[in-house]
Model the fold of this input.
Amino acid sequence: MTIQTVATTPIEGQKPGTSGLRKQTKTFQEPHFLENFIQSIWTGIGGVADKTLVLGGDGRHFNAEAAQVVLRMAAASGAARVIVGQNALLSTPAASNLIRKRGANGGIILSASHNPGGPDGDFGVKYNTANGGPAPETVTEKIFAATKVITEYAIYETQDADLSTLGEQTMGDMVIEVVDPVADYAALMAEIFDFDALKALFASGFRMRFDAMHAITGPYAHAILEDTLGAEKGTVINGIPSTDFGKGHPDPNPIWAKPLMDEMMGASAPDFGAASDGDGDRNMIVGKGQYVTPSDSLAVLAANATLIPAYSGGLKGVARSMPTSLAVDRVAASLGIDCFETPTGWKFFGNLLDAGRCTLCGEESAGTGSDHVREKDGLWAVLFWLNILAKRKISVKDLMVEHWRAYGRNYYSRHDYEGVDAAGANALMDDLRARLPDLPGTDVAGMTIASADDFAYDDPIDGSRTEKQGIRIGFEGGARLVLRLSGTGTVGATLRVYLENLETEALDKDAQEALAPVIAAAEALAGIKAGTGRDAPDVIT
Ligand code: G16
Done:
């Protein structure tokens, strides 16, 4: 075995986005692309000599090959140990847990999350720090800076490591420890939730469907829901991970998880339905005849948290990303706890969680989590819901009605315009941004604008400031409109329009009808049709 030093030059476009570096798989497979980025991670974190890392991915196309490259580059740069999930698999929350539990210095997660996989799909690389969470911007900026000046990388010339067998092996001086991807995560879930209550729930005939979307959560869901908690076989569907996610789009929402939605809206629907995404950090919750928006889900979890053993002492606070609806704010106000509003991206919750300022966090993009790890966690959210239902002995539909009666209903929807011309999308945003100071007090589409700004976040823990995080427009009466450009797309730009309207009386409307005035205001204010060249959104969730 020898260490090769390979000459290279900087490659354009290696700036980490909302969640690591995401590109088309083909791009990652171009000469030096992956290697340049990995070496830049090592540089950005001050080297990996003598460090312990965790490594795993969501099993998408190129996962296995990329994992071997990461191992050979870690060994060449002097890492002491890499703890890797069997067959290079780890869900994102399981990786976060392993980093924390094993006291690792950090970890590499190979995933493009909910983006489709396969040779024509997307791939991604994310670096998580010692707290188990996505690297904060201070770190990703150093990594990006390194990508711009890289001249060489170091890699071991050796055979592939055997990642199929549990146990230890060496590559040069580095130890490679192959671990069961599920075991530690399943043990953590058993510490948080009342597994006896969940077993009793399933034993009583409670029926559930969990759509793993051919992605990483399948093995976790089979082991926990069926093998441990006794849910009937067949509860977990699409539970065998495939490299192209069964040619699907592993994003748990009513559009991409339509078969599950159809089943849950049908006459013989099970009591509870859920889905998770490519790397297992997102979740969708749906009851018999009742879809629950991610924003509402966060609010319900917060309102019922003390029913869960791990949170029985109450919540320290809650946090939500800025575009997430204000439903959880209303719960926090009634509980008398802090509610933080952060930019989109799980990395912004890390400081608050580490400082013990909040216990639960969530995002409209189907992410919910707590201080048990430093990532959002799909299966954790599902178990949280099951634990509430087991204790409350109530249907999802009745629970939602009860919640809205108590707190009001924040009708919510997101309209996505995907893969639009980037210059046009930026011009639309710049134009609206320039008009923000003049908007408060004016009327649009029959509503009065109460506030308008470009969201900037001052982190209360480390004082860092993050600007230009999306345009926020608040209307009198509690409606809200947010526009921002996605940081996870790989083609052109994706404009996201987030719509919200608070109702305290009419709790049973169709969401798009309840939001019609806000939708009209968005068009009138931003000229979305003209700016994107699209008559309608590509995806409405
Ligand atoms: C990532 C981030 C989330 C973010 C989401 C959508 O999720 O971790 O915090 O809400 O992207 O981001 P954007 O609106 O910029 O596309 P994931 O599940 O893709 O890692």
